[in-house]
Amino acid sequence: MVSLGEMCAFLPVTGAFTAYASRFVDPSLGFSMGWIYWWAWASCYALELTASGIIIQYWRPDLSQAIFIGCFWIVITALNFLPVRFYGEIEFYFALIKVITVLGFMIFAICIDAGAGQQGYLGFETWRSPGAFAPYLVDGGRSTSLAKFVGFWSVLIQAGFSYSGTELVAVAAGETYNPRKTIPSAIRKTFFRIIFFFVFTIFFIGLLVPYDNEQLRAGGDDATASPLVIAAKLAGVKTLPGLINAVLLCTVLSAANSNVYSASRILVGLAGEGFAPKFFQLTKGDVPVYAVGFTSLFGLLGFMNVSSAGSVAFNWLIQISGVAGFIAWACILVSHLAFMKILENRGISRDTLPYKAMLQPWFTYYGLFFWVLIIFTQGFTAFIPWDTSAFFIAYISLILFAVLYIGHKAIVRPRFVRPSEADIDSGRKEIDEAVFEEPVPTTFFGKFWSWLS
């Protein structure tokens, strides 16, 4: 994120990832990374719509998912045709619900762990029995270090997917008020938000729910499978499932809204770099209507889940999005290494940048090493034992990325970008010449948040 923030504050353009990769490294890299990243978010729109139907079936199992997939598709798609300020306003309320939920759970977890529940004082009992690390796949029981490492690595890969979306601050850079100021601020706050909302939540769940809990192991489609609900049930609280289910519904609708917004802006970026038809750049009221409309159509893939045969094909399509975030992050880091070399070639000191990333280039090398490692090892379960179908499901994203890259390189034959020829001015000059006026909040919560800030 700090590597991305350095480039984004210096050159804030819509669909930034493709622009940085194609301008700083190789047009073929921007083409392949941009299209697979677009597909990731477009297909996730269908996934979130399907999830909304499953969640509502918690209350009305007699109703078909198709009803809610269609209804929410209409609502979310319509919202994305509105001016971008409406997107920000809606996401503010969704975020407020999620923040209140997380804060409430942390207070609840501290009380239960201290002995307020029917189990009495817990402390770190779950870290002793059954333990903090669960063995996985490899035989040998709990005492086998290898089995626990395999479990750790498997969860690490899933956790990485859960962090996808933090990079969206760059997607919106071209439509952000005063990006030279707001983007560095957002980047700096990302670390603390991850610690507070992600790590602390997982920490408390680990204290309250042992990994061998039967409900946790059984899984499920609705709120009964949520570790937050399981923690409440173990403590003797019976009223949370419905509330958590409602929060989950808000969460998936928020994600669906973000899917359409981010994918459409990536499509605009692809068009701007010449990797997609130019009409995707056309706007109406500052909204790229053709990009939004085309992206929204892929939400209708959610109807494939209504039939069992269609759901198999749908799962294959969704797998493409699974590793796309990892590939995009690796490409961002490669772009940042090239960006630093370009600055050195032009005699531009990093001290003069609107935002200077810490501990560079070592942070970038560190991140790039681990993302490449995770990309190539994320399907390791297909080898224990060998499963051909599982192998292709796990690595279809990487295969598609390679096909797109090699195909573009073979057909267009672009050369790698030389530091002396890289375009670091298009988009930057417009920002340098812009005059920013502080926007005036129009809602009560907006005014309150502005005052609080």
The topology string of helices and strands comes to HHHHHHHHHHHHHHHHHHH
Low confidence ranges: none
Number of helices: 19
Described by the principal axes of the CA atoms, the overall outline is globular
CATH class descriptor: Mainly Alpha
Task: Let me know the average pLDDT.
Answer: 82
- What's the count of strands? 0
Strand fraction band? under 5%
Largest sheet: none
* Amount of helix: 55-70%
CATH hierarchy: architecture: Orthogonal Bundle
| Rg of Cα set | 23 Å
The tally of domains stands at 1
What is the CA-CA span between the terminal residues?
22 Å
CATH topology annotation = Hydantoin permease
Structural class: mainly alpha
Topology, pairings included?
Blueprint: H1 2-10, H2 16-24, H3 27-56, H4 65-80, H5 84-116, H6 125-131, H7 145-162, H8 168-171, H9 179-208, H10 214-218, H11 227-234, H12 240-272, H13 289-297, H14 308-322, H15 324-346, H16 362-377, H17 388-412, H18 428-433, H19 444-452
Helix pairs in contact: 1-9, 1-15, 2-3, 2-12, 2-15, 3-4, 3-12, 3-14, 3-15, 3-17, 4-12, 5-9, 5-12, 12-13, 14-17, 15-16
Report on this model:
The chain has 453 residues and is mainly alpha-helical. The chain has a single domain (2-424), classed as Hydantoin permease, CATH 1.10.4160. The chain contains 19 helices and no strands. The chain has helices spanning 2-10, 16-24, 27-56, 65-80, 84-116, 125-131, 145-162, 168-171, 179-208, 214-218, 227-234, 240-272, 289-297, 308-322, 324-346, 362-377, 388-412, 428-433, 444-452. Helix 14 crosses helix 17 (388-412). It is globular, with a radius of gyration of 23 Å. The two termini are 22 Å apart. The mean pLDDT is 82.
